[in-house]
């Protein structure tokens, strides 16, 4: 795998840090305190210090040494087969988590924004499509968002590798939504199943689907220099590591508490770090992030396309991994990045709901004027009035997450009322808007 990103400078070693701290006194700490507060409140990596603190360039190593000392006192350790992951619950992270919980607890009123089951389904299907498209584009899918959405809505067979990736992602998200149970345990079989679904017909060898890698050929290279950026753990340790990942997901640490959102982000990081599969690790990691939070009853996450926010900052996403890996597996950098992008995704969803508010108002007004119409039928009329193209039973079925028979009944009902004109194309019906009836 090749990525384009500048390699971060590796921090000073623990030996160098301990030596510097031992050679300096309290006075030096006081002189650097204003800078120290910034480094730890923003949780900066060593690589970020030279540009931010040019005025104390000669003292950067000492500043870093004090910052690491403070972090060490607050570190939570997660152990995987001898590997230690470090996490520091900073005030900013705690504030972000509180904000997310407040959003779930009532800041965003779902009931007033989604007064009908069909409207909820419409928003949900749209979000799942956005997530499937963005997660696949992060891994190299080149199909445009418009074409991809049309394919999913029409339930059309994928025409190329990129469309197959997106279709797989979407089917996997639907599977997670419909099959995951509250507090369901994570197992090796479930991880393999999700990988198999998400990589179907997209790998160079079909035998790799849902199967852990059996060699150490998987590496991440810099596109610019060809240098190895990351080399995953030995394939012989994968089973043991993944078993411990499942243990982490299924139990609570005795010595400290991890917020469910943080735990889901750590799970995301662990899959990326172990890289258990030959390909598709990123898509699997993000799908498991959703799976875990939905299993913990964070159902609102179904409406939020986190991968869209990550796709808009791909270099920062990779750098968050690299910052964590180069700083003794301090996953705080990765947690910080994901929380920020999750907040961006929530804001985007709120803006989308606000943007469609007037359109939804038109739908309910249309229903009031004609009691023979349901929400879906009114929505179809308004949607087709904006773009002159036909619709099908399959597209109706996918758009609202309803059965084929319900979608067929809706469209035939609109045709009977005169809003749509029914035609045949091959073996299927297509429906076109009757403009004269709508004007009337």
Labels describing this entry:
3-stranded antiparallel β-sheet; 61% helix; single chain; 8 strands; Fido domain-containing protein; Arc Repressor Mutant, subunit A; Fido-like_dom_sf; Fic-like fold; 21 helices; WH_DNA-bd_sf; elongated; 3 domains; 440 residues; 7% strand; 3-stranded mixed β-sheet; Fido_containing
Summarize the structure.
This protein is mainly alpha-helical. The protein is built from 21 helices and eight strands.
Overall description:
This protein has 440 residues and is mainly alpha-helical. The protein folds into three domains: 2-74, no CATH class; 89-354, Fic-like fold, CATH 1.10.3290; 370-439, Winged helix-like DNA-binding domain superfamily/Winged helix DNA-binding domain (Arc Repressor Mutant, subunit A). Helix content is 61%, strand content 7%. The chain is built from 21 helices and eight strands. It has helices at residues 14-23, 26-41, 49-52, 60-74, 91-107, 110-113, 117-138, 145-154, 161-179, 188-199, 238-250, 260-274, 281-295, 306-311, 314-326, 332-355, 357-369, 375-386, 393-400, 404-417, 435-439, and strands at 2-3, 76-80, 83-87, 220-222, 228-230, 391-392, 420-425, 428-433. A three-stranded mixed β-sheet has the order 1-4-5, with no helix packed on it. The protein has a three-stranded antiparallel β-sheet with strand order 6-8-7. A hairpin with a 2-residue loop joins β2 and β3. The longest helix has 24 residues, at 332-355. The radius of gyration is 25 Å and the shape is elongated. The termini are far apart. The mean pLDDT is 86. It comes from Candidatus Ethanoperedens thermophilum. This is Fido domain-containing protein. InterPro entries: Fido, Fido-like_dom_sf, Fido_containing, WH_DNA-bd_sf. Residues 186-340 form the Fido domain.
């Amino acid at each position: 795998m090749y990525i384009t990103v500048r390699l971060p400078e590796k921090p000073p070693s623990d030996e160098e840090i301990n030596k510097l701290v031992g050679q300096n006194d309290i006075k030096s700490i006081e002189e650097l305190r204003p800078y120290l507060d910034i480094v730890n409140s923003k949780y900066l990596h060593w690589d970020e210090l030279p540009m931010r603190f040019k005025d104390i360039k000669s003292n950067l190593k000492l500043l870093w040494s004090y910052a690491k000392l403070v972090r060490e006192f607050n570190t939570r350790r997660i152990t995987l087969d001898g590997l230690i992951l470090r996490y520091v619950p900073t005030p900013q992270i705690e504030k972000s988590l509180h904000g997310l919980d407040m959003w779930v607890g009532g800041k965003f009123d779902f009931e007033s924004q989604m007064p009908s089951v069909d409207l909820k389904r419409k928003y949900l299907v749209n979000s799942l499509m956005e997530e499937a498209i963005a997660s696949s584009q992060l891994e190299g899918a080149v199909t445009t968002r418009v074409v991809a959405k049309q394919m999913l809505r029409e339930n059309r067979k994928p025409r190329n590798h990129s469309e197959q990736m997106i279709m797989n992602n979407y089917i996997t998200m639907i599977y997670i939504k419909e099959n995951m149970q509250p507090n369901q345990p994570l197992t090796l079989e479930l991880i393999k199943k999700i990988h198999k679904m998400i990589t179907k017909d997209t790998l160079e060898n079909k035998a790799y689907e849902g199967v852990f890698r059996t060699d150490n050929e998987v590496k991440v290279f810099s596109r610019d220099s060809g240098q190895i950026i990351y080399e995953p753990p030995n394939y012989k340790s994968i089973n043991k590591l993944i078993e411990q990942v499942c243990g982490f997901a299924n139990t609570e640490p005795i010595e400290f508490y991890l917020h469910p959102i943080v735990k889901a982000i750590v799970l995301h990081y662990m899959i990326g770090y172990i890289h258990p599969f030959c390909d598709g690790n990123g898509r699997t990691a993000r799908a498991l992030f959703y799976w875990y939070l939905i299993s913990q009853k964070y159902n609102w996450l179904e409406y939020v396309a986190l991968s869209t926010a990550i796709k808009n900052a791909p270099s920062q996403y990779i750098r968050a991994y690299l910052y964590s890996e180069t700083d003794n597996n301090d996953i705080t950098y990765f947690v910080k990045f994901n929380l920020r992008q999750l907040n961006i995704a929530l804001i985007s969803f709120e803006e989308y709901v606000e943007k469609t508010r007037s359109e939804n108002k038109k739908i309910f007004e249309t229903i009031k004027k004609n009691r023979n119409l349901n929400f879906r039928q009114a929505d179809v009329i308004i949607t087709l009035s904006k773009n002159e193209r036909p619709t099908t039973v399959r597209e109706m079925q996918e758009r609202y997450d309803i059965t084929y028979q319900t979608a067929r009944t809706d469209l035939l009902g609109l045709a009977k009322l005169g809003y749509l004109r029914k035609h045949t194309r091959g073996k299927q019906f297509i429906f076109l808007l009757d403009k004269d009836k709508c004007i009337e």
